[in-house]
TrEMBL record:
Organism expressing this protein natively: Halomonas cibimaris
SUPFAM superfamilies on file: lambda repressor-like DNA-binding domains
Ranges for domain HTH cro/C1-type: 6-61
PROSITE patterns: HTH_CROC1 (PS50943)
Pfam families assigned: HTH_26
InterPro entries: Cro/C1-type_HTH, Lambda_DNA-bd_dom_sf
Name the UniProt record assigns to this protein: HTH cro/C1-type domain-containing protein
């Protein structure tokens, strides 16, 4: 499974979903789904814009977690 760290990053910077959506131009629903980790897919342009906005690498935003670790 892919874990999205958007909520942690936003929390550290005290940002709200509406702030990120407004500042990046990303649809608020998309930001919400990523924040709550309910997104099943994400456009590469969205990933690129989030990385630009947060000045981070893709690996800081997303993490691969093997299914066996998820149940531990």
């Amino acid at each position: 499974m892919i874990k999205c760290h958007l909520s942690r990053i936003m929390g550290e910077r005290k940002l709200k979903i509406v702030d990120v959506a407004r500042d990046t131009g990303i649809n608020r629903g998309t930001v919400t789904r990523l924040y709550h980790e309910t997104a099943s897919r994400v456009e590469l342009e969205v990933v690129a814009e989030l990385c630009r906005y947060f000045d981070c690498q893709v690996g800081e935003l997303f993490e691969y977690v093997p299914l066996s670790k998820r149940s531990e």
